[in-house]
Amino acid sequence: MTVIMSTPGTDDLAAATDALRAWQDDARPVQLHPGDVGWYQRFGGGTVAAAVRTWSRDGRVLAVGLLDGARVLRMTTAPDAHRDEELARRLVADVTAPERGVLPDGEVSVEAPPGALVSDLLADEGWRTEDPFTPLQRDLTDPVEDPGVRVEVVGPDRVSDRTRVHREAFGGPTFTDERWHDMAAGPLYADARCLLAYDDAGVPVGATTVWSAGPGRPGLIEPLGVHPDHRGRGYGRALTVAGAAALRELGSSSAVVITEAALVGAVATYVSAGFERLPDRHDRQRAA
Questions:
Q1: Which pTM does this prediction carry?
Q2: pLDDT digits (tens, 9 = 90+) for 57-97
Q3: 3-state DSSP call for residue 227?
Q4: DSSP string computed for 88-144
Q5: What angle do CA 170, 201, 203 make, to 5 degrees?
Q6: Which residue from 256, 247, 254 is spatially nearest to 212, judged by alpha carbons?
Q7: How far is residue 237's CA from residue 235's CA, in Å, rounded to a whole number?
């Protein structure tokens, strides 16, 4: 059967996210996670559905991609399809031809699993590697230590604190209360938690969201940020530890996080929170 690309409607998005759940595995490299789709849900259900692409053969989803903006496709494949030549060649054809509705002309990037044939074929097409990202992972077999600061789960009464801390931490205005409610209304948020860290005076100083992929599978910490006025005081580490504990309560087998390798402070924070640094990975980029 031929590999078919499709853009699922809002009602069909579950097939893509179910596939992403099933593909999460501690023994495999960190990859696109259902939590990435859940975090994108803040832009609304219609927007996130329009940003997803699936590649299927004979009714089975073999690859899922998320357009993280107009020029970045983050994608992964079923574990047994990493070296599937028909799938890889179809993926390359779709991402290199703007008329197919995946990526436009000019400078674009593709994130693919390490070792996937699609990455090799893009290299053959002249796509270069981008600056590295660093994945980190913490096993959750054993109980997680106390974070050492007050960290609480965000409910509807604390949404404004959570969104304000995020905007201050990342320096952008886009994560509003309305967008938090759009995110929380999505089906994936049933397996997620937003957390707020407080200083001794009860002031919110940092926030994160954690996403479970189901019991016995890796969970994702995305995003995590600390207010600029409160950095360097251990709140990032505390939030990371609290996030790992929340994922363990949700049944996750491990907690994973990915950051730019150049952000050495972030990498050090995650390592200090008991995370193991895994081999760096590179997206593929087509120059303008």
A1: 0.97
A2: 999 999 999 999 999 999 999 999 999 999 999 999 999 99
A3: coil
A4: HHHHHHHHH-GGGSSS-SSSEEEE--TT-HHHHHHHHTTPEE-S-EEEEEEE-SSPP
A5: 25
A6: 247
A7: 5
